[in-house]
Amino acid sequence: MKAILIGLIAAVFFSVTFILNRSMELEGGSWIWSASLRFMFMLPILFIIVGFKKNVKPVILHMKKNPIPWLVWSTIGFGFFYAPLTFATIYGPGWLVAGTFQLTIIAGSLLVPFLNKSLKQRIPVQSIFISLIIIAGVFIMQLQHAASVPAKNVLLSVLPLIISAFAFPLGNRKMMILLNGQLNTFQRLLGMTIASMPFWIILSLYGITTHDLPSSSQIMQTFIVAVSSGVIATALFFYATEMVQNDNKKLAGVEATQSGEVVFALFGELIILSAPLPSGLSFIGMGLVITGMVLHSIVSSLGNRKKRLLHEKVSGVKKGNVNGD
Question: Which residue ranges does UniProt annotate as crossing the membrane (predicted)?
């Protein structure tokens, strides 16, 4: 129960991203600054966290050995993930962006065969069927949204989020394959933030030439997002998963808590931004998205359990053969 509670608290901090990004958009702040300033603020914070345990040097050494992979996958995993996500807030409320971004679960499943070809993994068909529930939920939410805005707005909201949904698992999983457990979570976050800086600097230069400089309000809000989602939420979520990593049922429960981002983003916008209450149809869509995420976590848990039991069985047979010899 404690791990579930921590997971829900992490979801609250993650939802701050969607609420404040929408807030900055409504105040007239450019999405460019909402995106780039977050990672610029994250950089010194992560340096302090990783440097506190004197773990910065291994990050720098690994980056020097593999500069191109670090640059490419960090730019995809952070830049192509967060810039489109922030851009989408121009054309839709935060709760809709949060709900549509859950397509990343489906994207992650579709990318499985292409992430590590040496393992010859197949697309998890069962997960894809469950993901259809999430797709149905997103479709219903966007359909309701389309009834009140031009079709162009819907496309400019959905298409960037599809890019974001694929970029996030692609970049992060490729980096985990590259690292192969050599760096911990915060070391990886620091390295990816450093390696994605060229992208954010170029985006900022574009922002300087095409938009006004960020207001003091936008600077403060992006700092809050950096601390809330980039540091606190990440630390809480990984702490929660580590607490129950040996219990698949509880681990599935912790993973499913992240579906709460949609709900928390909605209530945050209602309270903080005085946003209008979504229609009943939109609530049905949200319900389907959350249901799909919970089912996906359960199936993933059962799959991991089967693999573990099979591994233990094979190990037991091998051990028996050795003893028999």
Answer: 31-50, 70-90, 96-115, 127-145, 151-168, 189-208, 220-239, 260-277, 283-303
For the chain, give every domain's residue range.
2-324
pLDDT tens per residue across span 158-197: 999 999 989 988 988 898 889 888 988 889 999 999 999 9
- The H or E element spanning position 79 is none
pTM: 0.81
Residue 279 three-state SS:
coil
The answer for 71, left when phi > 0, alpha when psi is -120 to 50, beta otherwise, is alpha
CA gap 274, 253 in Å, rounded? 31
Closest CA to 261 of 233, 242, 235: 233
**Torsion over CA: 149, 150, 151, 157 (sign):** negative
d(C-alpha 243, C-alpha 45), whole Å: 25
Q: Is 287 helix (H, G, I), strand (E, B) or coil?
A: helix
Distance CA 170, CA 165 (A): 9
Locus of tokens 């460019």: 32
Q: Which of these, 163, 189, 155, lies nearest to 175 by C-alpha position? A: 189
The answer to whether the beta carbons of residues 199 and 79 sit under 8 Å apart is yes
Among candidates 224, 260, 243, which has minimal Cα distance to 8?
Answer: 260
